[in-house]
Amino acid sequence: MIRLLRALGRLTVDGVWQVGFATRFLFVMLRHSGPSFARFSLTIRELYFSGVLSLVIIVVSGAFVGMVLGLQGYDTLQRFGSESALGSIVALSLLRELGPVVAALLFASRAGSAVTAEIGLMKATEQLTAMDMMAVNPIARVVAPRFWGGVLSMPLLAAIFSTVGVIGGWFIGVVVIGVDNGTFWSQMANSVDFREDVMNGVVKSFVFGWAVSLIAVFQGYDCTPTAEGVSRAITKTVVYSSLTVLALDFILTSFMYIGK
Amino acid sequence: MNRAMLDLWVGAFVALGFAALMFLAMQVADVSSEGTRGATITLYARFDDIGGLKVKAPVKSAGVVVGRVTAIRFDPNVYQAEVEMRVSAAYPFPKDTIAAILTSGLLGEQYIGLAAGADVEMLEDGDRIQMTQSALVLEKLIGQFLFNQAADGGGK
Amino acid sequence: MTTHPDIAEPVVELRGVDAGYGERLILSGIDFSVRRGQLVAVMGGSGSGKTTLLRLVSGQLRARKGSVRVFGESLEKISEKELYALRRRMGMLFQFGALFTDLSVFDNVAFPLREHTDLPESMIHDLVLLKLNAVGLRGAATLMPSELSGGMARRVALARSVALDPELIMYDEPFAGLDPISLGVIGQAIRKLNDALGAASILVTHDVVESLSIVDYVYLVSEGKIVAQGTPDEIRASTDPFVHQFIHAEADGPVPFHYPAPPLAESLLESEVAR
């Protein structure tokens, strides 16, 4: 019992310590973010690695999620004779939830883990220390551009995910099943609000981008500089960012749609 | 990977991202048909009961969307709901137009239907539609039906 | 530029320094100095605090007690900016080179030049090839670090650490894991670079034979203290039992073979009782 309590206490203390350290790290990084924008080519490189290279997985998953929504949505709706609402179902679920959340989860496991691995390996092989010794701040030169690359690509990836998903849903609903094309789009346009649904989705994915990128660079920078430490840091990045994304999604959703 | 290739790919990625956002805004949310663009006039109408009508519900005439509901208030002086709607200025309606709250399908959303009258004068910005027809509330209908049945039965 | 070591100004000077991480004290009471033109070796077993000494000099670690002065400036309350200004005058070679794996050999050597100077690309090109030529790897400029052998990577890293013509060069175990030929090549390169640049160099190593043949002065570190110092000849001739054990690589002596433990018989008995 005592041991259990002690374990709980330790977990809490460590957790709070980590969060505090990550917050301090965020401020240090923001302070050293000048070069990420002054020398934008640094960030462009990271946009390529976290954005462009995530495109394939985002597009493929988006298409499948949209097609599944089309099938499931149709199956459920036709029981009530309201197949005409298929467009709204597909678009609303993608824009409000699935687009930002699934894209963020995929982003965490594709780009986030890669960033952690890269920074972790640079730390383990003393490349970060070497840079520091050359009077080049590794946070400004290595960490901050990767953070901003992630923050900037996340909303774009989420928008692409939703768009491909809507097209996937349209393909199944209209082309394969035969729901009326005009009804599909007009019902969708009627129920989707630009500010309420589209912009809130963008805000969500922006917040997720911050969270996932911060966790990824922090875990990489904070890892134990050994092969084992790096692999543990990668696991932590995926687990922590997935949990953070889901928790943040709940909080954001309750503020955006329910708390009014 | 050389610099030019990198810039090209990232440029394409960013363009694709913004194209996706545009698609979501224009095609999915259809910002342009929300009556926020183009000239509109504001009309008012009072209803005894608006049922499940919501802000942003469409205003239709002959099934075509001509505007949107922009605000719903309760007027304590007359104990009625006051609905503010914005209708495209391109479609002028006569003064004696009837506004009714209708439902699309059995379980569909509610909207305002405008049935044009025959007046020569047209509604102008800020005018009130005098003739209105409230939403049909299912419970009331059923209640009425049962009442009528009972009345009929008693008469026999 | 090369002056006689005894009258030259000290580039690095440590007086009565204590240092450590967290609650652990690694170094205590260290007095240490390096003069311009000198190549100084710091030798000792693994875990004796040699690398910690380098971290003190390079400002990665602050001293608990005593004073650390580099280029005449105290490192105790130095700001990050001032420290970076000092580090531009330093070069450091890491144990395994620490080359940037995503950059080619050429770009690795060019990195400090591009970050700290506004030289035109053509001039950087010439400077990089000169530095690579000095370590005999001009032909490898377009290779990636993953295509290099351990010895070659070390030489590229050496070229990179002297790219800005530093006045103080630090070597952290430059001989670790090298074959005898590469080892000799690196050793000669270190000596030549120091003389050519008129710099001061600190060589942290446990390779006795190679270092004694190239350095001017030796510090022997054991358990966080400096236990012996002198020129290579003095060290070789020393009768001190510790120095003797270290130089001749004997397994047992003042540095015990066994980590402190109760006698073996006792430990065996204990597990017997526990059962």
From TrEMBL, chain A:
Assigned keywords, A-Z: Cell inner membrane, Cell membrane, Membrane, Transmembrane, Transmembrane helix, Transport
TM spans (from-to): 47-71, 156-178, 198-218, 238-258
Superkingdom to which the source organism belongs: Bacteria
Subcellular location: Cell inner membrane
Predominant subcellular localization, coarse grouping: membrane
Family: Belongs to the MlaE permease family.
Subunit structure: The complex is composed of two ATP-binding proteins (MlaF), two transmembrane proteins (MlaE), two cytoplasmic solute-binding proteins (MlaB) and six periplasmic solute-binding proteins (MlaD).
Protein name: Intermembrane phospholipid transport system permease protein MlaE
Origin species: Tepidiphilus baoligensis
From TrEMBL, chain B:
Ranges in a coiled coil: none
Pfam families, A to Z: MlaD
Segments forming domain Mce/MlaD: 40-117
InterPro entries: ABC_MlaD (IPR030970), Mce/MlaD (IPR003399), MlaD_Phospholipid_Transporter (IPR052336)
Domain of life: Bacteria
PANTHER family in alphabetical order: INTERMEMBRANE PHOSPHOLIPID TRANSPORT SYSTEM BINDING PROTEIN MLAD, INTERMEMBRANE PHOSPHOLIPID TRANSPORT SYSTEM BINDING PROTEIN MLAD-RELATED
Name of the featured protein: Outer membrane lipid asymmetry maintenance protein MlaD
Gene: mlaD
